[in-house]
Predict the structure.
Amino acid sequence: MIYTTPNSGTGSILGTSPEEIDTPRQGSDRFLLTAVIVLMIFGVLAVYSSIAWFAETRGTTAGTLVTGHLVKLAIAMVVMLIASKIDYHLVARYSRAAVIISWVLLVAVLIYGEVVFGARRSLTIGGISFQPSSVAIVSLLVHVAVLLHEKQEYIKDFKRSFLPILFWVMPTFFLIGMEDFSSAVLLLAICLILMFIGRISTVQIATFVLIGAIGAGALLSSSDERQSRVQEYVGQITQINSSSFEPGAGYQAQQSYIAIAQGKLFGVGIGKSTQRDFLPAPYNDFIYSIIAEEYGLAGAGMILLLFLFILLRGVVHIARNAPDNLGILLATACTLTIALYGFVNAAVACGLLPVTGLPMPFVSYGGTSMLFTALMVGILLNISKHNKNRNSTFYYG
Amino acid sequence: MNERNVILSRMFIVLGLILLMPAAIVIQLLRINVAEGEELRQLWNSQTIHFIDIPAERGLIYDRNGSRLVTNTVNYRVAIDPQAPGSSYSSFAELSRILSRHTGRSARHYLDRIEQAPSRSRYLVLDRNVDLHAYEEIQSMNARGVILEEEYRRHYNYGPLASHLLGFVNHQLAGRAGLERSYDEILKGEDGLQQVRRDRNNRIFAYVGAPRKQPVQGHTLHTTIDAFIQAITEEELRDGVGRTGANYGTAIVMDPATGEILSMANWPDYDPNRPGSQPEENSRNFAVADMVEPGSTFKLVTALAAVEQGVVSFKEKFETPEDGQTVIHGQVMRDHDPLGTLDFRQAIARSSNIAVSEIAMRLKPEIFYQYTRNLGFGTTTSVDLPGEESGRLAKPFEWSRVTLPWMSIGYEVQATPLQILQAYAAFANGGDLMKPYVVKRITDEQGRTVQLNRPTHIRRIAKKETIERLMPVFEEVVSDSGTASWAAVEGLSIAGKTGTAQKFIDGRYRNAYRASFVGFFPVDDPKYAILVMLDEPGISFYGGFTAGSIFREIARRIAGLDRRIQRSPDEEALPNERWSHVPSLVGLELAKAEKLLSHLRIDYNRQGSGSVITGQEPARGEIVEAGSRIELILGDPGSISESGDRVEIPDLRGMSMRQASALLKRIGLEIEMIGSGTIYTQFPQHGEWMRQGRSVTVRGKITQFQHIESVTTASN
């Protein structure tokens, strides 16, 4: 039912009609879209359950905030739809300009930005508040894919390939890193992975990573506070047994463990979380813990499966069948970003990674992550329409 | 297409590596859930589950007639947290308006407090005493940052009434004095527990099905206190202390048959609703906590011992020295006045120290000591009130040669007022020493009796015949010839004893006295034993006059309440429209007598001539109907009995203060007035002889006022 074909002429709302599409004669990937929508439903439930205290501090009600969340989800769906209509080759043409604009915005946010949760991240233009970092992430990843695609003929050349790409990556990395270090590191990692996939010399990337690691190590050892945070993290991974935690240190991880343990196999039930009162930002950073508490291992595993599905669908189906290298790289970039954000968030909730503050795409409360992930899904959907191997799909079956 | 294949293969390498992440997460999830699950869930319990107290309601206290003396109230305290998230100045302004509507303070008053609060304050009390209506209205505002707290308080319904018996509680509702203290364990009950969930901001959530333990409510005390008698006792004691200028006073009323304490009062008193607002001394219960040398009231012990041991005969005469003093083993013993020759009855009735100590010295110290112990001296009465003293009674081997004579008249021994009253109650009921007590019955929440305190018989104090023989002796004390004529109530048979003890301060007897009177009535079947004690009364140190008059007022009013006590109505009745007492007119000028008689609507016939009335028929005090005639005998002023510089005191009762003053002045006496209006008592009594220049104390009351008072007494 939901797999409408573009040629039938009776496309659904999100479907495409043959007249609108240039080269591809194919609908977008409904499996991917379904996974995203299921994640969003989980997200709405978990946010509604966990946002009450935050709502109280804002002098409003959970219902109001969840309504806002639903509105943002609707906007995300529209963004997704629009992005899926724009040919990715067209997007690629404007990537350079987009990155430059994003730099301007990132500089602007450092100067004029509003403070949200202690960091200057948000910018209000014409009454609409948004975080330029999301725009920057999308435009940079698109541009890196475009650059890799363009430089395939001399891709092993350090000066003509590696350095120019790095020239575009580093300003964004530093500008985002000023206020949101975790996002910046994740972005850099994705860019490097993308470069690896785009046939950049492994030696060059490894050298760069090595230098970066040494630099990071030096940075860590230079400050006691950073060292203690590392030690805390090591302790958090090696000892789940919470009695060995010092009070204060590891509090968040401890509370998250308790939430997960409390959930057992099938959870305590919808809206019955108690750990939401103890976890910081349970509607955002620790939303995975709330899901694990309310829906148990089953729910937590379901979320993992959904992201795994998006990852496999994006890589194995959409990227592999993309008509050109640009499509492969762009699809991989988008898929990896979404999946990695999801996995990192879950890993933080499980205490595998230090607390980063990264949202879980489509699940966490907050409009900005929604915006750039929606853009990426839109791009993915567009690439999926250009499926090279028609016979490999059952759209025509 | 080689490029594409390389890209795809690299892509799958990356995919394979990234798949390690969900694998690691799944392993970690299982590890947390299975391997560490139990401990973590235990931790959840300890941080989320809490128990809070459900306060038990403190027990109530009733008087013997079922009047509720002590209750519990709840007050609401309104505070704000200006830093609370979501709070706004406009909601605080609204709160101030609601408060001002209910408390009568201006909204500005509250707003000023809010504005002037330190900027970092998180808890600012706006009002401590808010009623339920305001509480509900504020609660319906549902504003953020408003803190409403319940505050349980103890309310003493009649303020200072019985304050020394009831005691008071501290701010945590723990009993600090009186019954509140001695029965604290019983009154407070046992708090219950409620399991709640608590979040990291320490906010509490009750939830359905949470385990709870119901509180055991405090038990209720049903006391022997009679609120009417207590009120009378307090009122008369207060008046008496004020009138006599005493430092303080104490009065106790007891049922002699059972030992039930009907009232216990101290003046100055305090309001247990605000125990901190009066000096701490005011909350001291002198009735049980004050150890004093009893003085002449202790002569009861001597009388009992002497009569029962047969060392004294009622016919025996005792010669007391001319100057009223004698020397015993080198120490001077004085009588208050030279008393001349006395028999045993008079020795007690007129309270002769010399005669009584002479009798006591015929007894062995051990025997005397035994009687003292038997009457309850030297040990606590075990009354159920806190802070009781045992008094001080030396054992015979510790005595000096003068201990026995002095102890026989109430010195060298210390007793609490309650001990003295207990001894007299035993004497009154025919010889059974009863344990005094205040709480009769303790009931639980459902009104079931959990404890019943019955009268406790301690021991016999003497043979029945001894007591029967002595009863008329102590009755004579409260007669015109006794020391306590001031305690007499017309139509009521009262027995008792006065006491005037010099205070022993810093090793020496000073010119400061404790005056007391202890008595009981009616003598045939005593229903009430009353003790009144005053510390350093200013106007006169004689117990008969100061304490005795307080006793009389208490006794008169109690007798009026008790239907079991018969008094002849004409004795008690007061002048009114239809009939009146014939006033004493002897000594009055005719014009004044005419005026007085016309006021009382009595006609008269004159016999003889002269300006002053020298005789009358019928005599004063007789009752005549309005409009009837009496005979007046007139004569000269000189014919009124006068012998040298001593004059006979006329009967002043029924006269106005002005008449009495004029009459006394004419015969050379001074007047000391207490109260105003018609005189109804005087001291010394009429018929006694007194040197000119001395003063007669009269006590008057406005007739109208007495009417009103009797009405209120009845409606009590």
